[in-house]
Specification:
The chain is an alpha+beta fold. Helix content is about 20%, strand content about 30%. Strands 1-2-3-5-4 form a five-stranded mixed β-barrel. A four-stranded mixed β-sheet has the order 7-8-10-9, with helices on one face. Keywords: DNA-binding. This is Replication protein A OB domain-containing protein.
Length: about 300
């Protein structure tokens, strides 16, 4: 099965064996799920040179995988996912771990060897690992944000519906250089509150939860975000730089101050692949040798 056709042939909530080249990797991160529970996740993108598939590993499995990725490995890393769970997120195929999932990195398998041979071709490697039209995220302060010129503007065709019961916060953010008005959409608000708008509304309507309000009648959950440190990705629009409109949309946010990842230098090495151990041993992939290269 070809990776480029997985959106057609892979059914949701099924288990599958997949092989691919790790194109992008995001280290383990902490988050709160929709139930307000603490979780950990790591995300990566795998490719066969024709199309990409998103992969998400959760909690202890993600921690184990993150630890494995920090071991000395030939780059780019080729991964075999055995017994991975197939789902969809935002209309795209997303693979994740289940109780049966095993991961092999740079394993001595004929599908992996074949991918190494393909990567030895400079044109294929450039196509498979290239990041077209990707701009480096620039870390700036409030004062610098207000001085951006029109060259900072980008077009965005994303369509986001806003039903009644979704968050939209208008906040004042500040650093050592000044203050700026920021609009937090539903996803950004849920990220820092740990609740959905519907759940918070239900709590506010419950008489037994009178203690959750301030004397002014505001939910204490909303005020809990005040005077905390956050890192935001700000969307700069034409009105901001042309008309000096000082209200900005945030399209990503996380708690605390985070450093931006440096550029990684991924070099293609077509020598014999290094064998690594699976991140979990709860499943025996007896049919692994039958994996088709195209099943990536």
């Amino acid at each position: 099965m070809e990776l480029s056709n997985q959106t057609t042939y892979l059914a949701e909530n099924t288990s599958s064996d997949v092989v691919g080249i790790i194109k992008d990797y995001d280290q383990i991160r902490d988050l709160k799920n929709k139930h307000g529970q603490d979780q950990k996740k790591t995300k990566l993108v795998i490719t066969d040179g024709r199309s990409n598939v998103n992969v998400t590993f959760w909690d202890k499995f993600g921690e184990s995988f993150d630890k494995s990725m920090k071991n000395p490995l030939d780059k780019p890393v080729i991964i075999i996912l055995s017994g991975c769970k197939v789902g969809k997120w935002n209309g795209e195929v997303d693979l994740s771990n289940s109780y049966a999932t095993k991961v092999y990195l740079n394993y001595k398998h004929h599908s992996v060897v074949h991918l190494w041979k393909l990567l030895a071709n400079e044109e294929f490697a450039k196509k498979a690992l290239g990041k077209n039209n990707v701009k480096t995220i620039q870390k700036i302060n409030v004062d610098e944000l207000k001085k951006l010129g029109k060259n900072a503007i980008e077009s965005c065709n994303r369509y986001v519906p806003y039903p009644d019961q979704k968050f939209r916060f208008h906040v004042i953010a500040e650093d050592m250089t000044g203050k700026v008005q920021v609009v937090l959409g539903d996803m950004e608000a849920r990220t820092i509150i740990g609740k959905r708008c519907l759940h918070l509304a239900d709590e506010c309507l419950t008489e037994s939860n009178i203690q959750m309000f301030t004397e002014e009648g505001l939910p204490k959950t909303l005020l809990s975000i005040v005077d905390k440190d956050y890192s935001l990705v700000i969307q700069v629009r034409e009105m901001n730089v042309v008309n000096n409109f000082n209200v900005y949309w945030a399209n990503n946010i996380c708690k605390g101050f985070v450093g931006l990842p440096g550029a990684t230098n991924q070099t293609v090495n077509a020598k014999d692949a290094q064998t690594s151990q699976p991140t979990t041993s709860t499943y025996n992939a007896g049919g692994l040798s039958d994996i088709d290269l195209a099943s990536n």
